[in-house]
Design a protein that fits this description.
Blueprint lengths: L1 E5 L2 E9 L2 E8 L4 E14 L4 E14 L4 E15 L2 E8 L2 E4 L5 E4 L1 E8 L4 E13 L6 E12 L21
Antiparallel strand pairs: 1-2, 1-12, 2-3, 3-4, 4-5, 5-6, 6-7, 6-8, 7-10, 8-9, 9-11, 10-11, 11-12
Amino acid sequence: MVIEGGSHDLVLAGWLLPNLGIALDVGTRGQAVGLSVGYRRTLLQGPKGWGLSVFASGGLRTLLTEPGLALTATPALVAGSFGKGIGTVGVAVPFAVRVGSPLARIPVLIEANVGGRPGPVSFGLRGAIGPVFVPGEPTAIALQWSAWVALALPPVPCTPQEATRCNTTSAR
């Protein structure tokens, strides 16, 4: 379970399965509330937690400052240390498209994440910067920061038949 809060939104998230998670987010300026489902996959894994992972999520946001709904999607690629010392860099494109309107918001963010995992609790800081494209408007620059804390819950058990789904070679 992860709690993250910062300049952009407050998030409560958790992994339902080893590669499948869910998140609830609330905009810190009261602009929207959203629910999303996410998937992660380790592409490369090295010693002591080093690796390369891909993430993808999608969801629905209720706009609060002006009535409406938005569909969201976020592909991301992240590399670095996911072990006891957390240090990652990545690129994310958390875009949103308003339902019933051609309005879209497409940020392209470079992200950095630093933290630690001394036990079942991990913590860290995340920062992101990049251009934000909205069709018909001048390009803006997004600058985001947040602090997060996570609690490792017991792993979801896997049977030998599910080892591929769990991204392992044998059951846990």
